[in-house]
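This part of the workshop introduces the protein records we will be handling. A learned vocabulary of local backbone shapes supplies the integers on the structure line. Getting from the letters to the tokens is the skill we practise here. As an example, a complete record with its sequence and its structure tokens follows.
=====
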Amino acid sequence: MTTNLSGHGLSPQGSVHRSQTVSQLYMDAVRRGDGQIVEGGPLAVDTGKHTGRSPNDKFIVREPGSEDRIWWGANRPLEEAQFDGLRGKVIAHLDAQPVLYVVDAFAGADAAHRIAVRVVTDSPYHALFSKTLFIEPTAEDLADFEPQALVLHAPSVEAVPEEDGTRTGTFVVLHPSRSEVVIGGTFYAGEIKKSIFTVMNDRLPRERVLPMHCSANVGSDGAVAIFFGLSGTGKTTLSADPERQLIGDDEHGWGDTGVFNIEGGCYAKVIRLSAKAEPAIFRTTHTYGTILENVVVDEHGIVDLDDGSKTENTRAAYKLEEIGNALPAKQAGHPSSVVFLTADAFGILPPIARLTRDQAMYWFLSGFTAKLAGTEIGVKEPQPTFSTCFGAPFLPLLPSVYARMLGEKLDAHGSTVWLVNTGWTGGPYGVGERMPIDATRALLHAALSGELVGAPCRTDEIFRLAVPVAVSGVDPALLDPRSTWSDPVAYDAKARELAGLFRENFKQFADVVRAETAAAGPVG
């Protein structure tokens, strides 16, 4: 199947393959030496020096159609002429390739808010990644497909910083008014999906839809839960609950009719993945159609998920339907529970706490977690970080836009908000241990089932969080982080240090929130 690309300024000299099958893309990737088929059927690939996102090489074009709405305090500007120069380099490269791959798909399971996405690349495994992560169109959709967003992907093309205005040879650039993205200098496939998520973070608020960096699932009673969190905090693992149906694992919109998945696939971290603790996700790492990124493979084609010698950010990309309890519609009603996941590397925060409305707004704007090893270039061990709205790298608009929308949704639907720490207990990173996943699951089950409604709570003296004093199936000591430290005085000092980081970070939002929200943070 071929397609005319002249409307995008492309004049390919070779063949153009559109919407190929998984088998065809597998064969092309293996034939080119881009990947190998490993035991169980996945395609294993290596992304080279870039084994994570490059947020410092991501730009938004400064142009009249969007300049006034972009959050320039966090997004790096690139002039339109420089974008056109990079686009020209990418176009020239793609035109000269013997084969181009075109993937036409959708972002957004809700037909009222979906956009048609076209990815053009010279790499078959990146085409397979795009086919996997976005929502596949029907034959009828393809017959009259008109792209509303375009990704021009040429991972081997390097920018020249002196002439292109970039920081390095790597570039991920969004032109907001054109909804065009050009990507070069990195083979890390995650840049493709996150670039379209950035597009949706720009578009959806104008349609009265809140875009969210979260996973989502729904119980048999129709009760929806969403899980905000940065990479590595447990969004994928905790939402893949066998007792609930999975709506999606990473990107969603919350509109007038409820929550919908933006994607058609999942992109899970798989380092040290456990067949016992995460059986559904583990199964995908031994399944045909899955792409394994930077996973170590031996000479017999056997993968070793425990080997982090290439990167701690090993990944598996697979269709949502590979999770047995996935919800086919990829959309459900309004959330009754909203969960903020944080991986606290200080070992201070409780494993679960209920937030008031103002605390919810404070924690959403703060977006505290630990940036985990490998997720971004240069991160070797967990680093405490504040990523507003739990997704700052993907937010083209001011955080206040998303926070205001979340507040309106909480007020309209009466959602209960929980803070869940999947990070460390018994001490900070390097001293304490990671929170037991069985305990986290038990706590979430109690929260989502209503067991914790009206349960006795203590109030944390510094963070002023309402923490349950007892939860069925959970060691009571875990609920009081101070008691898990061998030196309570050291805990108190570290808690005050962390509280100070919160207060300092929140100064940037003091003028855009009501006084009650600004006062809802930690003291001491």
